[in-house]
Amino acid sequence: MAPGAMSRWTKSLSEARPVSYWLDDPGRPDPEPALTGAETCDLLVVGGGYSGLWTALIAKERDPARDVVLVEGREAGWAASGRNGGFCAASLTHGLPNGLTRWPDEIHTLQRLGARNLDAIEETVARHSIDCDFERSGEIDVATEPYQAWELKDWYEGIRAKGLADDVEYLDADAVREQVNSPTFRAGLYDRRGVAMLNPARLAWGLKRACLGLGVRVYEHTPALTLKPYGGGMAVRTPYGRIRARAVALGTNVFPSLVRRVRSYTVPVYDYALMTEPLTADRLASVGWKNRQGLGDSANQFHYFRLSADNRILWGGYDAVYPYGGRVRAEYDDRPETYARLAGHFFTCFPQLEGVRFTHAWGGAIDTCSRFSAFFGTAYTGRVAYAAGYTGLGVGATRFGAEVMLDLLAGERTERTELEMVRRKPLPFPPEPFAWTGIALTKWSLARADARGGRRNLWLRTMDRLGLGFDS
Ligand SMILES: Cc1cc2nc3c(=O)[nH]c(=O)nc-3n(C[C@H](O)[C@H](O)[C@H](O)COP(=O)(O)OP(=O)(O)OC[C@H]3O[C@@H](n4cnc5c(N)ncnc54)[C@H](O)[C@@H]3O)c2cc1C
Predict the structure, then answer these.
(1) Ligand 1 centroid to residue 24 C-alpha, Å
(2) Is the CB of 471 under 6 A from ligand 1?
(3) Closest atom, ligand 1, to C-alpha of 256
(4) Which of 45, 58, 84 to mutate to test the pocket of ligand 1 (most atoms within 8 A of CB)?
(5) Which atom belonging to ligand 1 lies closest to the Cα atom of 78?
(6) What's the chain's Rg over C-alpha atoms?
(7) How far is CA 362 from the centre of its chain?
(8) Which of 47, 76, 422 shows the shortest CA–CA distance to 259?
(9) Among 32, 88, 252, 360, which is best to mutate for testing ligand 1, by the most ligand atoms less than 8 A from CB?
(10) Which range has the worst mean pLDDT, 22-31, 100-109, 295-304, 417-426?
C-alpha cells in the first residue's frame, strides 16, 4: 500500500464511529426488564439473537398455549444479529458450493427447504409488519480476476447441468457492469430470488416485538449462568432469579455454550464492515445499482457489499480474524488496521466514489465451525436442544435452525431432522496452540491461493479431502 494512498483512504475514515451502523439507530427499543425472582415455563429460550427469537416466535406459532420465556444476557440483537451485512440468503449451507460438496445427495432437498425458509421469513416480516427494509433483490457473485471468471462460468455450467441454476444467470463483464459499475468486475452470477437485503438490527427488534405480542416473556440483561436437570425438566440460574422449564433451546451462537461439550465445535472469527454516508444522486448514478442487489466477490478472502435503504454502501469482509485463545471480547470489535484495508479495497472497486466518507466502522464475532454450516443436537435426554455454527451465513438459516431445535425438543422426525446435515456434527476444533496454528496456516494458504490464480497448496488440498476448512 503506497503511503500517499494510505493517507487518502484513511481520511475517509476520520469521522467513522466505531459502532454498528444498524445498532446506532434512534429507533432502538428499550430493553425489557431483567428477571428478578422465580419463573416457570414450558420452553425456555436462551439468547436474544435471531436464533433465539425465531425459536420463541415459532414455538408460539406452533402452539399458542405453550408458555415461553426468553432470556438474553445483554440486549436483543446486540451481537452478530445487529452487526451483520443483512444478506438474508435462502442457502442453509453457507452457499451452494459448500452444500454441494458436503451433501451432494441432499442438495436438492436443502435448496428447496432453504427457499421455503426465505419465503417464510418474507411472510413473517409482512405478517408482523416488521419494518426492516426487506428487499428480495438477489445477489451477484462477481469475479474480479480472470481465473475467477473462468471458474464462475464452469461452475455455472455445472450447476445448470444438475438442475440447480433455475434462478441464476451468468453475466459477462459488460452485463455485470451494467448492473453495478466497477472497473474490477469481469463476470458475475446473478441469483435473483435466493437472497434478500434487510436491516439486520430492525429484524431482531421486530422479532422481539412479535414475540412479546404473542405472549413470550422476554427478560433482557439476564444471562443464564447455569443449566441443570431438575425433576423432569431443567433449571437455570440467572443473576437475580431462577427458571424451571420443561425444555430449553439454546440460541447462544459463538458465546460459551451452557452445554460444555458443544464448545469445541465453534471458534469466534471476527469480521468487519464499513458504512458510507448516503450517496448523492450523482454518485449513485455513477455506480448504477438500480436493482439494489447485494454483491460478493469470489476470492477466498472475499468482500460483501450492498446498499442501505438510504443509499449508503455497506462494505465488509476480507479480513477474518481469529484471536489466539478463541475468546469473545469487546476489544476485538474494533480494528482500525482492517478498516484502513477495507477502505482501500472500497476505492479500488469504486474509484468514481473518491471523496465519499465512512460514517461507521465495526466488527463482530462469527461462530465459525469446520464445515461452515450449522450443526444441531440435544442434551439431557432430549430436554435441551442447540443449534450453532452458522459461520457467516446465519441471517436466514437461523430460522431453519429454530425449526430444527423445536422438532428435536418435540421428539418429532421431520424432513428437517432426517437430513444428514442435521444428524451429523462437524469435526471439532483442537485446543490451543493447535487451533491457532491450523487456522493461521489455512488463512496464509488461502491468501496465497488468491494471489496465485486460485491454485491451492498441499495444505488446502489435504484440508479439502478431510472436509475441513476456515471461512467467515
Ligand atoms: C460482521 C458480521 C457480518 C455478517 N454478515 C452476515 C450476512 O450478511 N448474512 C448472513 O447470513 N450472516 C451474516 N453474519 C452472521 C449472522 O449475523 C449470524 O449467523 C446470526 O446473527 C446468528 O444469530 P444468533 O442468534 O445465532 O447469534 P447472536 O446474534 O450472536 O445472538 C446470540 C445471543 O445469545 C446471547 N447469549 C449468549 N449466551 C447467553 C447466556 N448464557 N444467557 C443469555 N443470553 C446469552 C448473546 O448475548 C447474544 O445476544 C455476519 C456476522 C457478523 C459478525
Answers:
(1) 17
(2) no
(3) 38
(4) 84
(5) 49
(6) 22
(7) 15
(8) 47
(9) 252
(10) 295-304
Rounded to whole angstroms, the Cα distance separating 24 from 199 reads 12
Amino acid at 7: S
Phi, psi (deg, nearest 5) at residue 279: -75, 140
Ligand 1 atom with the smallest distance to the CA of 393 is 11
Distance (Å, rounded) from C-alpha 219 to C-alpha 200?
21
Residue 333, ligand 1, Cβ within 6 A: no
Ligand 1 touching residue 344 (CB < 6 A): no
- 275 within ligand 1 shell (Cβ under 6 A): no
Q: How many CA atoms lie within 13 A of 90 on its CB side?
A: 25
Contacts of 441 by beta carbon, 8 Å cutoff, 6+ apart: 459
Closest residue CA from atom 16 of ligand 1: 394
Whether the Cβ atoms of residue 118 and residue 396 lie closer than 8 Å to each other? yes
Q: Is the CB of 194 under 6 A from ligand 1?
A: no
Q: In terms of Cα–Cα distance, which of 66, 385, 40 is closest to 230?
A: 40
For the stretch 438-465, pLDDT in tens is 888 888 888 888 888 888 888 888 888 8
367 phi and psi, to 5 degrees? -90, 85
Cell numbers linked to 387 = 443449534
Nearest Cα to 140, choosing from 203, 86, 191?
191
pLDDT tens digits, residue range 219-253? 999 999 999 999 999 999 999 999 999 999 999 99
Write b or e for each residue in 209-248: b if 16 or more Cβ atoms lie within 10 A of its Cβ, otherwise e.
bbbeeeebbbbbbbbbeebeeeeebbbbebeebbbebbbb
- The grid coordinates of residue 111 equal 435448496
Query: Measured on CA atoms in the order 101, 371, 192, 276, is the torsion positive or negative?
Result: negative
Q: Cα 182 vs. chain centroid, distance in angstroms? A: 26
Atom of ligand 1 at shortest range from CA of 52:
25
Q: How far is the CA of 9 from the centre of ligand 1 (A)?
A: 30
Our CA angle for 183, 194, 93, nearest 5°, is: 100
Residue whose Cα lies nearest atom 25 of ligand 1: it is: 49
CB contact at 8 A, 370 and 468: yes
How far, in Å, CA of 256 to CA of 320, rounded?
Answer: 20
Nearest to 46 by CA among 73, 64, 75, 79: 73
Give tens-digit pLDDT for 343-399: 999 999 999 999 999 999 999 999 999 999 999 999 999 999 999 999 999 999 999
The mean pLDDT value for 186-209 works out to: 97
